[in-house]
Write a structure and sequence with these properties.
This protein is an all-alpha fold. The protein is elongated.
Length: 395
């Protein structure tokens, strides 16, 4: 067994400081392991200062880089790097903390020689072997460091496929929605394209299936994005596509159907989608520490104005969509549904810098909302009354 002692003439206080360094190293090691396991393994939201600090460092860096940016497309290209860089910064922070934790634990075994402790810690943690330990005590610590280095790499290797599998599942449905709701997605556009894209069939059944798929999608996103918070900042392959805007458009389309055309709306599926949708938003918002109001006043006012709603209803009516209620009659019902998710969606969209779409609130960049991109309108002689191309001019 290694005997730890200090040199003749040295104060006993020195030995006490060595043991204090050992205890501090153990404490730092435990905190770092807690952060690592909580972030990568525990299947529920886990906030800790280490992971939060890494995310804040990444956010601060990109806050500086984005200052001169004036165009959304440029900002989107820049922010595409934020989530991957956050993962790298967090890994680097963990490794640095492990490095210093083991160095502190080695201090008593190298008689207070701090450079040697740092050297043995790095040699063990990164399995380089250039600084062999001198005794059983330091050998034990170095073996612990080597195990930690392997474990961190193995966990990170397993973590990345999990993240990207969740991103791929999310983006598959978002990409499918592009042909239905345009880019950026918009609720009234979804109703219009579905109606006239299936003019010879029943669009109600198609929307019922869509709402069923998006109810499951919302449940998947709620679980994955509240557990692995970095997913919220992973951007879609195309700058005008976004998971949050897509969810908002599907929820708006369901609320529009329930309020404008209750007799043909797939009522059960639309209601289930809406409830799962705003539950998803509440779960994600709570995980990233945004205030959540679970008891919304049904008689409150939405940030979306009645004039904007009426304009969309007029567009649907002009295109021949089966509107059963006037805008004035439908507005209280639509507003009641939207109050459950509008405020959370707007704050989340601002936080993750989602593309500025219609009915999605303001952005930090100050960009004006963009209507969905549509193909050029055909001439009247080429388009029949039920041809969707006839109704694809911008509102």
């Amino acid at each position: 067994m290694t005997r730890i002692s200090w040199k003749v003439g040295e104060s006993p206080v020195v030995g006490i400081l060595w043991w204090a360094a050992l205890l501090a190293g153990f404490a730092l090691l435990a905190l770092t392991w807690k952060s690592l396991i909580g972030t990568l393994i525990v299947t529920r939201p886990h906030n800790d200062r280490i992971s939060d600090s890494a995310a804040q460092l990444s956010t601060a860096l990109f806050s500086l880089l984005r200052r001169p940016v004036k165009k959304y497309q440029t900002l989107d290209r820049l922010l595409a790097w934020q989530a991957p860089l956050t993962l790298f910064i967090r890994l680097a922070v963990w490794m640095v903390l492990f490095y210093f934790a083991f160095a502190l634990m080695l201090v008593p075994f190298v008689h207070g020689d701090l450079p040697r402790a740092l050297s043995e810690s790095g040699s063990g943690l990164f399995t380089l072997g250039y600084s062999p330990p001198a005794g059983p005590g330091s050998t034990t610590v170095v073996y612990m460091a080597a195990f930690t280095g392997f474990a961190v790499v193995a966990l990170q290797i397993g973590y990345l496929p999990t993240l990207y599998a969740a991103v791929n599942r999310r983006e598959s449905e978002v990409t499918l929605l592009r042909s239905r709701a345009g880019t950026p997605a918009w609720g009234p556009e979804l109703l219009l394209r579905t109606r006239f894209g299936l003019s010879g069939q029943g669009s109600t059944k198609e929307l019922e299936d869509l709402y069923r798929s998006w109810e499951r999608w919302a449940a998947d996103v709620a679980e994955s994005h509240s557990t692995y918070l970095t997913l919220c900042w992973f951007r879609s392959p195309l700058p005008d596509s976004n998971w949050l805007i897509a969810l908002l458009s599907v929820m708006d389309s369901a609320a529009l159907q329930l309020s404008l055309s209750p007799s043909i709306a797939p009522t059960v599926r639309a209601r289930l989608l809406l409830r799962m949708g705003f539950s998803c938003l509440q779960q994600i918002a709570a995980a990233i520490s945004l205030p959540v109001n679970e008891d919304v006043d049904p008689d409150g006012e939405t940030q979306l104005t009645f004039e904007e709603f009426k304009e969309a209803v007029s567009m649907l009516s002009a295109a021949g969509y089966p509107v059963e209620q006037s805008a004035e009659q439908a507005w209280p019902h639509f507003r009641g549904w939207r109050l459950n998710y509008e405020d959370l969606t707007y704050r989340l969209a601002r936080t993750i810098d989602a593309p500025a779409a219609l009915w999605s609130g303001p952005r930090r960049l100050g960009a004006a909302p963009s209507p969905p991109k549509r193909p050029a309108n055909r001439v009247a002689s080429d388009a029949g009354p039920d041809d969707p191309q006839r109704y694809t001019t911008r509102p």
